[in-house]
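User: I'm preparing a small set of examples for a lab meeting where we compare how different chains pack in three dimensions. I only have the primary sequence for this one, and I'd like the structure in token form so I can line it up with the others. Please keep the answer compact; I'll paste it straight into my notes.
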Amino acid sequence: MFDFDLIQDTSKKIHMKQLAVQTCINMIGRTISQSEFYVKKDKKIVKDDMYYCLNVRPNPNMSASHFWQTVIHKLIYENECLIIQSDTEDLLIVDSFTRVEYALVDDSFKDVTIKDFTYSRTFQMSDVIYLEYSNKKLTTLFDGLYADFGELFGRIIEFQKRKGQIRGLVHVDTTYEKDEKTQRRLQAYIDKIYKAFTDKAVAFVPQQKGFKLEELKNTTQAQNVDEVNKVADGFLNQVAKALGIPISLLHGDMADVEKHNRNYMTFCIDPFLKKIKDELNAKLIDKKDYLAGKKMETKRVSNINLFDVATAVDKLIASGAFNGDEIRDELGYDSSGDPIHSKYFITKNYQESSEALKGGESE
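Assistant: Understood. Below is the structure token output for the 363-residue chain.
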């Protein structure tokens, strides 16, 4: 991933773009890397080799968290990510490939390269895990935004430098020679003096006949970095909006943090997990098994405090709307296996409306 705008005069602050993009992508990657991927059959989690591969060690060189962070980074920044399964059943993230698209049959992938190794064979779409983020690369949007914000950012930096610049004059008597050798000696002497002023707390300069230093007072206001920060934050906010990250959550605002976190998980993280889950179901689970109830599920990181929802849980069970296993499933926990959690309960104060209209007791 090259940034050719390094050679442009109006914008050389490439770190602003990299900081904004990496901040947003890393935030999404860290969140999804905490998720759990598992196969569920007959309402029970199947913990087999696939479970270990997806949640512990996808391949010998990557942990599961590093693996999924890399997948999300490639998926967002490059708009696509290809994962293949090696002969040893390890999941490997492809660095580069060539996709050949067809209308009625599976697409194929050629020139599949992982680090310094290139496969000679061709992979079919049904044999790989292929994730695609959107129809248009976000990098195109980021580059377009940076063309505007970067130019403004560079000009503000230069303006702030000029505001805080220390200027001086050197008065030289006309008795000095104008040849190149004398000019070099004079420049070397001036550089030595100002280096002493810059590096030392106390500096003395011997006065010489025909040579005088004069520093001009800077009457402009002190350098202000607020404008610089505003431009950098503006670019960061645009990138966050494109990825669905609440701006307040990104900047660490504490007001309504629970609401922003819920929106972040719903509109940003859940679509990524849904995309991954659908692809894993299509490629790792047979159609017959899927229709029989076997399917891939994801459990994202939860910020639910059980003590905060205890009253609501009690009410849902007491009304007979849900049983214990269904509540545990919604909270992200496995079935307890206890038969009592598969039953429905209604508290005694519930009764049919026809019974409530009768009133009183009868002998």
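A couple of notes for your slides: The CA atoms of residues 95 and 224 lie 43 Å apart. DSSP finds twelve helices and twelve strands in the chain.

User: Perfect, thanks.
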